[in-house]
Amino acid sequence: MIRRLAARPWSFVAAARVGMYRDGWLRSRDLPRPAISVGALEMGGTGKTPATVAVAAALRRAGIRPAIVSRGYGRVGSSPLLVSDGAGTGPKVTASQAGDEPWLMAHLLRDVPVAVAGARELAAALVPHDRVDVFVLDDAFQHVRVRRALDLLVVDTAAPFWTQYPPPSGRLREGAAAASRADAFLVRGHGEAENERWSNKPRIQLSAAPSRMLPLREWRQDAEGTAIAAPPSTGVAFAGIAKPQRFFGDLRAMGVHLELAQQYRDHQMYTATEINGLAERARLRNCRTLLTTEKDAARLAHLEIDDASIVVVTYRLELRNETDLVDLLAASRGPA
Question: Residue 67 and residue 130: Cα distance in Å, rounded?
Answer without folding.
Answer: 11
